[in-house]
Structure formats: C-alpha cells, structure tokens
C-alpha cells in the first residue's frame, strides 16, 4: 500500500518544533498519570462545513474544511489488555475497562464512549482477537457542542490509535468509512462527512 494513502502517526522523536510545547506538556501529564512516557501521538482535526448542513446522509453535496482545533491522544500500549482513558480536562472523568469486553452507552454518553466507538470499529473491521491494551491521555482544543465535530474527531483519533497500536495498515479512505459506521454504535446516524474531511483533507485544497 502506498504510504501517501496512510495517515501519519507521530512518535515522540518526530514532533515538529512548532508543536513541541504542547506535546512536551502532554508527555509530562501522561507520565504523571501512567508512570511511563507515551510511545506515540495521534491527532484528528475538527471541521467546519461551508455549504450544506445535515444533508450528506441524504446523498447531497457538502463542503467541509478541516480546522486547526483538534483532538490529540498520547498513547502507550500495554500487554494487560486493559484500556485506561484519561482526559486533560478535569471535568471529563477517567475510565478503565478491558479492551476486549466493553459496553458503549447511548444514554447521555460520556466523552470516552466516542473513544470506545473508534476502538471497537477498528477491532471489528480487522477481526482482532487480542487487541493490545492501551493507556491513552486525550487532549482537545475543539470546543464542545460548537458544531465543529469534536465527537467525530474523538472517534477518528481513537480509530487511528487502535490501528497503529496493533500494527495494522488501513488506508485513509477505509478509516473514514469505518469511523463513519462505528459512530453509529453511540446512536449517531451521519453520512460520513466529518470522518472523510478528518482523514482526507489536504492543505490548500477545497
């Protein structure tokens, strides 16, 4: 598979200087929570839609654009098959469970339920019998409930994390399709616009 069809994932030594301060801070917070350094970082941007609202799932055209505001996950795999989720925002509670057996709540879903959607979607698509355990620290700059797709960014970032941690090769197009479908686990019936622009956006192109 061509490398330009894959989503890049950053390891600690690949952080660009312009992003260094944020990622250094995330590394320190990760160490404080988990007692080790993250092995890699995943990022998924939010989006703004320029034309067409709530019509993509009816087959009509839309014009979304990825934005700088994003979700970033600092990640360290573990061999215990335990999933540990922490958010840098203290108003969002932490969550731990087995990565092989968890339930996604549709009733007043917490932030981590969107993460579970992405993890489950990749695990089912790839038929993972024994996915590696994950310790994840999540940091977000996409405003909540602002129509900028913070929930889909969580799903996409989690899906990318699950893929990379388990050494899977899944194209950008496939990732967008998987994440659009797996967000339905939480009750969202979208048309794939958010996930497509998240994975397929290109700088300077409309």
- Strand content is 15-25%
Distance between the termini: 25 Å
Q: Measured on Cα atoms, how large is the radius of gyration?
A: 16 Å
Largest sheet: 6 strands, mixed
Shape: globular
General description of the model:
The chain has helices spanning 20-34, 111-125, 150-165, 172-182, 193-200, and strands at residues 10-11, 40-49, 64-78, 82-87, 95-98, 133-140. It is an alpha+beta fold. Helix content is 32%, strand content 22%. The mean pLDDT is 86. The chain is globular and about 45 Å long. Strands 1-2-3-6-4-5 form a six-stranded mixed β-sheet, with helices on both faces. The two termini are 25 Å apart.
Features:
alpha+beta; six-stranded mixed beta sheet; 32% helix; globular
List the helices and strands and how they pair.
Blueprint: E1 10-11, H1 20-34, E2 40-49, E3 64-78, E4 82-87, E5 95-98, H2 111-125, E6 133-140, H3 150-165, H4 172-182, H5 193-200
Parallel strand pairs: 4-6
Antiparallel strand pairs: 1-2, 2-3, 3-6, 4-5
Quick rundown:
The chain has 206 residues and is an alpha+beta fold. The protein is 32% helix and 22% strand. A 6-stranded mixed sheet has the order 1-2-3-6-4-5, sandwiched between helices.
């Amino acid at each position: 598979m061509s490398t330009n069809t894959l989503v890049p994932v950053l390891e600690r030594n690949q952080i660009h200087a312009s992003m260094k301060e944020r990622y250094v801070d995330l590394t320190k917070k990760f160490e404080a929570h988990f007692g080790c350094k993250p092995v890699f970082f995943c990022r998924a941007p939010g989006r703004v839609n320029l034309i067409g609202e709530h019509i993509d799932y009816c087959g009509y055209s839309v014009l979304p654009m990825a934005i700088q505001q994003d979700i970033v996950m600092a990640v360290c795999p573990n061999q215990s098959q335990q999933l540990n989720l922490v958010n840098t925002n203290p108003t969002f509670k932490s969550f731990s469970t087995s990565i092989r057996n968890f339930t996604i709540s549709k009733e007043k879903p917490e932030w981590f339920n969107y993460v579970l959607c992405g993890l489950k979607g990749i695990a089912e698509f790839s038929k993972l019998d024994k996915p590696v355990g994950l310790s994840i620290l999540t940091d977000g700059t996409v405003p909540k409930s602002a129509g900028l797709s913070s929930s889909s960014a969580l799903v996409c970032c989690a899906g990318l994390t699950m893929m990379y941690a388990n050494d899977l090769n899944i194209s950008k197009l496939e990732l967008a399709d998987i994440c659009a479908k797996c967000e339905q686990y939480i009750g969202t019936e979208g048309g794939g616009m958010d996930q497509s622009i998240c994975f397929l956006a290109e700088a300077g192109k409309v």
